[in-house]
Amino acid sequence: MIDSHCHLDLPAFRDDLDAVVKKARELGVKGFLVPGTTAQGWQRQLAIQAQYREVFLAFGWHPWFLPGSISSGLKTLAEVVSKHREHIVAIGEIGLDATVDIPMQIQENWLLEQLNLAQAYKLPVILHQLKTHHRLPALIKQSGFSYGGVIHAYSGNTLMATKYIELGFKLGIGGTITYPRGGKTREALRSIGLASLLLETDAPDMPMCGFQGERNEPARLGQIVKVMSDLFDVGEREIIDKTTDNFYQLFGRLPA
Ligand SMILES: [Zn+2]
């Protein structure tokens, strides 16, 4: 199984990353996609990939951490993408978040620019969204972006999911579905079907049910598999195989 979204570059993992990766490997995690958030993070991501060969990377400006200047921020991103093109499989994590204190118009400009960059490099994107389902599909359409990607930490109904899938996106499924209140999302997933789903933890965030208040880790990815196995009434092996296929379909490269 592959953790399609884990922030191993964050300070939460600085002291024991080796143990975190080892434990996840022992529990069957075969790949880790570490999405970008900031310029310092991109450098740390490269160092992590040099150490663990099953690490995939994406670079991007996360909507929580947009720098003041869009022109210089984009220039820095374009430079690192061009220099390390062979080290990355996507642009991300980018997107819109209605809960942060950055005006939506500014966030939308950033998103459009980063979608353009992804389009120029023929790369898929990792999209973050919070309370912006009413804007995001329209914006993707408006941008003309056509390389697809993943809607990270998907929670929403079937209709919304269908809009993203029609635009070439898959849905990242994480801790939300382990909670009793995740019923709406679980129902949506069942009607959407396994072909559009990826597994993710969003470690160190989004703890699973039963582990609230603790640091989340890729080693817990199996909990998502368990819930999905019950939900789809198929074996865990099938969930793992299908979501792994979906991951490679999108991010295209087999581990060395
Ligand atoms: Zn994230």
List keywords for this structure.
eight-stranded parallel beta sheet; alpha/beta; 256 residues; single chain; binds zinc ion; TIM Barrel; 43% helix; globular; 15% strand
Question: What does the model show?
Answer:
Helix content is 43%, strand content 15%. With 256 residues, the protein is α/β, with parallel strands linked by helices. It has one domain (2-251): TIM Barrel (Alpha-Beta Barrel). It has an 8-stranded parallel beta sheet with strand order 1-2-3-4-5-6-7-8. It is globular, with a radius of gyration of 17 Å. The protein starts with a strand and ends in a 5-residue tail after the last helix. Zinc ion binds next to loops.
Characterize this entry briefly.
This protein has 256 residues and is an alpha/beta fold. It contains nine helices and eight strands. It has one domain (2-251): TIM Barrel (Alpha-Beta Barrel), CATH 3.20.20.
Structural class: alpha/beta
Q: Note the gap between the termini.
A: 16 Å
DSSP E strands, number: 8
Corresponding CATH superfamily: Metal-dependent hydrolases
Number of structurally distinct domains: 1
**The CATH topology:** TIM Barrel
Strand order of the largest sheet: 1-2-3-4-5-6-7-8
Bound ligands, named by name, code or SMILES: zinc ion
What integer is the average pLDDT? 96
The residue fraction in helices comes out at: 40-55%
Strand content: 5-15%
Shape-level CATH architecture: Alpha-Beta Barrel
